[in-house]
Design goal:
Elements (H helix, E strand, L loop, with lengths): L3 E4 L6 H12 L2 E4 H11 L2 H12 L5 H14 L6 E4 L5 H13 L6 E6 L2 H15 L7 H15 L1 H8 L3 E5 L4 H15 L2
Parallel strand pairs: 1-3, 1-4, 2-3, 4-5
Helix pairs in contact: 1-9, 2-3, 4-5, 6-7
Bound molecules: adenosine monophosphate (AMP).
Length: about 190
């Protein structure tokens, strides 16, 4: 099984590159942001609770996202592998993911980290908000909160995988295809 964590701040290009990696390697895409937006669209209690936090740009509780990931892993046990997009976002989530995957005998193979500067991120998110109408991409103060949440709670997750010698950094600025090729080189390099 090939399990990859695609990492980086909001607006780094994780969604765009995930789609390509899914096609290239035959993986299942697991985005906690997409799963939460599906809960909101379905009008579930979980979705309504999560929406309040997402609209402010803060993280939803670890237990919520860990539960969603666990149920996906259990229902798709015959997958060739998963690409985790926007998860794990805290050290507690990373530890929970390691435990879940270790029980399946298929730990994270590598963490691909897209590196993009903060001014570039804010500009990209504002553009995405204008194009898509996504609420948490439209307000500059919400965007800044999301970037701060990332720096405070999420950036340390890179250190978690660095200690396991699984962190691979890739420049996230440039042509989409070039970034994709750089990501593929890293995946192929860390494949056993
Ligand atoms: P994203 O689409 O990945 O940018 O996520 C949008 C929002 O969903 C984030 O700002 C958080 O409020 C919430 N969210 C998504 N994934 C997670 C996660 N792994 N942990 C906590 N909150 C999350």
């Amino acid at each position: 099984m090939l399990n990859i964590v695609l990492f980086g701040p909001p607006g780094a290009g994780k969604g765009t590159q995930s789609q390509r990696l899914v096609e290239r390697y035959g993986l299942i895409h697991l985005s906690t942001g997409d799963l939460l937006r599906a809960e909101i669209a379905a009008g579930s209690v979980l979705g309504l609770e999560a929406k309040k936090l997402m609209d402010q740009g803060v993280l939803v509780p670890d237990s919520v996202v860990i539960g969603m990931i666990e149920s996906r892993l259990l229902t798709q046990q015959d997958a060739r592998g998963f690409i985790f997009d926007g998860f794990p976002r805290t050290i507690a989530q990373a530890e929970a993911l390691d435990t879940l995957l270790n029980t399946h005998g298929a730990p994270v193979r590598c963490m691909l980290s897209l590196v993009v500067s903060e001014p570039e991120l804010v500009a990209r998110l504002l553009k995405r908000g204008a194009d898509s109408g996504r609420a948490d991409d439209s307000d500059e103060s919400v965007i800044r909160t999301r970037v701060q949440e990332y720096e405070r709670k999420t950036a340390p997750v890179a250190g978690h995988y660095h200690k396991q010698n699984k962190l691979r950094e890739v420049n996230g600025v440039g042509a989409i295809e070039e970034i994709f090729q750089a990501l593929c080189r890293e995946v192929d390099g860390c494949a056993v």
